[in-house]
């Protein structure tokens, strides 16, 4: 296998897990750095600019949810995948993770082959999406996949990766209603288990940034992009 261009940051306070993940990722030719707490992860991310962060929730000094929030706030990390690997099975922990911008949530114990398959699937889906049309212009809204930016009435807005993909998908299919399950399948994929509420959280965040006029809720059905 040739050298991969993708960089991965692994964050966990358990040294055996760091070593296990680093070994398996490097076997797949990913460039890997590790961190044992959230503060260290944020500092490494600033310089390393990973394409993927594998992140534990329960860590000393700063937990994974706050770490994810800080990494997502970095403009250069907008397109980075963030996947939680955690023993926390409670629904509120999963919701909190997706609320701060996680792309996937995987429960420990880790199964290396299954994890590598899901990571590779994330990058494959991302590559396919990049091959679609680069821009959508609808009224005073311009969505540019090349830069992952939105322009609303001439004002530039930056969205995290999943919020951007959700808006882009809806805008590609104006006036068509999609259920939460449809959106989960098209944005997160069938190999990622995500709560339906995650869609609601992402729609709410998109509306907060671009306004309420573009995406409508169809009660009992789902969501649609409005094209007047």
Provide a quick synopsis of the model.
With 228 residues, the chain is of the alpha/beta class. The chain contains eight helices and twelve strands. α3 (64-72) links the parallel β3 (52-55) and β4.
What features would you highlight for this structure?
12 strands; 228 residues; alpha/beta; Rossmann fold; five-stranded parallel β-sheet; Arc Repressor Mutant, subunit A; 2 domains; globular; 22% strand
Q: Can you walk through the features of this model?
A:
The chain has 228 residues and is an alpha/beta fold. It folds into two domains: 7-129, Response regulator (Rossmann fold); 132-225, Winged helix-like DNA-binding domain superfamily/Winged helix DNA-binding domain (Arc Repressor Mutant, subunit A), CATH 1.10.10. It is 42% helix and 22% strand. A hairpin with a 2-residue loop joins β8 and β9 (155-158). It starts with 6 loop residues before the first strand and ends with a strand.
- CATH class label of the largest domain: Alpha Beta
CATH architecture of the largest domain: 3-Layer(aba) Sandwich
Q: How would you sum up the major sheet?
A: 5 strands, parallel
Number of helices: 8
Helix content class: 40-55%
Percentage beta strand = 15-25%
Quaternary form: single chain
Strand order in the largest sheet: 2-1-3-4-5
Shape: globular
The CATH topology of the largest domain is Rossmann fold
Low-confidence stretches: none
Radius of gyration: 18 Å
The CATH superfamily title of the largest domain: Response regulator
Q: Quickly count the domains.
A: 2
In total, the number of strands is 12
Q: Sketch the topology as an H/E string, one letter per element.
A: EHEHEHEHEHEEEEHEHHEE
Structural class: alpha/beta
Mean pLDDT: 87
């Amino acid at each position: 296998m040739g050298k991969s261009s993708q960089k991965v940051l692994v964050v966990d306070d358990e040294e055996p897990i760091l070593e296990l993940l680093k070994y398996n990722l490097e076997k797949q030719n990913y460039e890997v750095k590790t961190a044992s707490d959230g503060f260290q992860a944020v500092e490494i991310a600033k310089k390393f600019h990973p394409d993927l962060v594998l992140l534990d929730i329960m860590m000393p000094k700063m937990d994974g949810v706050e770490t994810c929030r800080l990494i997502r706030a970095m403009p250069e990390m907008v397109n980075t995948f963030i996947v939680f690997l955690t023993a926390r099975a409670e629904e509120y922990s999963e919701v909190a993770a997706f609320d701060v911008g996680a792309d996937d949530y995987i429960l420990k114990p880790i199964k290396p082959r299954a994890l590598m398959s899901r990571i590779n699937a994330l990058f494959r889906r991302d590559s396919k999406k990049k091959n679609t049309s680069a821009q959508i212009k609808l009224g005073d809204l311009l969505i540019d996949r090349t830069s992952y930016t939105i322009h609303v009435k001439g004002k530039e807005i930056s969205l995290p990766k999943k919020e951007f993909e959700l808006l882009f998908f809806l805008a590609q299919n104006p006036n068509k209603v999609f259920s939460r399950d449809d959106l989960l399948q098209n944005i997160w994929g069938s190999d990622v288990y995500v709560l339906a509420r995650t869609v609601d959280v992402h729609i709410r965040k998109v509306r907060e940034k671009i306004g309420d006029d573009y995406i409508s809720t169809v009660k009992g059905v789902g969501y649609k992009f409005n094209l007047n």
